[in-house]
Amino acid sequence: NAGVTQTPKFRILKIGQSMTLQCTQDMNHNYMYWYRQDPGMGLKLIYYSVGAGITDKGEVPNGYNVSRSTTEDFPLRLELAAPSQTSVYFCASQRYQETQYFGPGTRLLVL
Amino acid sequence: AQTVTQSQPEMSVQEAETVTLSCTYDTSESDYYLFWYKQPPSRQMILVIRQEAYKQQNATENRFSVNFQKAAKSFSLKISDSQLGDAAMYFCAYRSATGGATNKLIFGTGTLLAVQP
Q1: How many A/B residue pairs have CB atoms within 8 Å?
Q2: Rg for chain B (alpha carbons), in Å?
Q3: What residue numbers bound the domain in which B29 lies?
Q4: Among residues A85, B13, B30, B45, which one has the fewest Cβ atoms lying within 10 Å of its Cβ?
Q5: Into which CATH architecture does domain A4-96 fall?
Q6: Over 70: is that where the pLDDT of B101 sits?
Q7: Could you read off the pLDDT of B51-96 as tens digits, one per residue?
Q8: Chain B residues with CB-CB distance to A104 below 8 A
Q9: Cα dihedral: B54, B57, B62, B63 (round 10)
């Protein structure tokens, strides 16, 4: 049981480039989340999804987009990368009121 | 809006001793969940313990226990017999129990725990 997987583990982007962070869960969870963690801080919610085809903004959505075409996958798209998007990104999934499980994170550096 | 506050940016404990990490939160809801997550240097977020607000009994998981004071909105984590592997960043988190879009976790800023041999 792989749980929540994220790719890539680490990426360096130049300012203005775009990329997609991949997230997949194999637990048939309906809820999925994207968080970012800045140095020395807690996690902040970027986007979330309550099921396939349904997404909504969290606290810090600017500069990001998401889609949820299947239950398993919840990719996060960065358009026109900026230095302020340098962070560690975590994907998480959950079934209803149960425990939220996290992926291993993607470290992104924008130069 | 709900908030979570961890007032101790860093803590240190001797191996085999006991340490308590503090967390306070603010909410107008009566039904919710509280969590402690551990984040070691690998950055993986690991669930340590979970508390349902409707339960008066404090949750325990082996060497980890909480002191949940609902009226005071306090949720501290006690680590007994500290081990070197307990060294990590610890995050307190809140989640509403009303379901739907409010299943998101709200995190504190974390407490970095060092364990001295």
Answers
A1: 56
A2: 14
A3: 3-99+106-112
A4: B30
A5: Sandwich (2.60)
A6: no
A7: 999 988 999 999 999 999 999 999 999 999 999 999 999 999 999 8
A8: 42-44
A9: 110
